[in-house]
Amino acid sequence: MRVGIADHLGWAVAVTASANHEVIDRRRVELVEPGLTAAPIHYDSARLDEAGTAALVDEVRSSVVRATSSALDDLANTLAAPVRSISLRAVPADFPTDIATLRRSPWEARADAVMYREVLVELAKARSWEVRFYDAKTVEPDAAALLGDRADDVLHGPRTRLGPPWTTDHRVALAATIVAG
Asked: CA–CA separation, 64 vs 108, rounded Å?
């Protein structure tokens, strides 16, 4: 099984597909526990000093690890076959890690999303899942090119076959599993 993730701040759409691109599972997964901010850098660092931001990031990251681990375990436990790979939006290799830099533009706008992806990478690797990255701007056309004449049926057909929801996030996540293959 291949899992594609279309992540947002605090939640994601996960689509699991077979090797022949059949959608096996689709779900919204919570990536942070209730009651905590989903964006400790972007939304909350303006009201905190650097030490306060660092403490909040540590608290939220710990929550993200717990919530995301639980969500991935729930997903894996419902599937009839093991997960082989997970596909995520690319994580910038040179993204800063120090809080002082992350609090400044342009980093603060992306820091929280990168944190979620980094946790997903760590947790996937801990489960021996291969990690693949995709470009959100090109993943659908890339998948369509690989699928050829089957592209419309594979990428848009699940809405008819499975019913709503089948959003852009679902298509992106499914396309990511195709490109990963």
From this structure: 18
Q: How far apart are the first and last CA of the chain?
A: 10
For the question of whether the overall pTM of this predicted structure is more than 0.90, the answer is: yes
Residue 125's alpha-carbon distances to 9, 88, 98, in angstroms, are: 21, 13, 24
pLDDT in tens, 130-180: 999 999 999 999 999 999 999 999 999 999 999 999 999 999 999 999 998
**Whose CA is closest to 177, among 158, 162, 160, 155?**
155
H or E stretch covering 65: helix 50-78
Question: How far apart are the C-alpha atoms of 150 and 22, rounded to whole Å?
Answer: 12
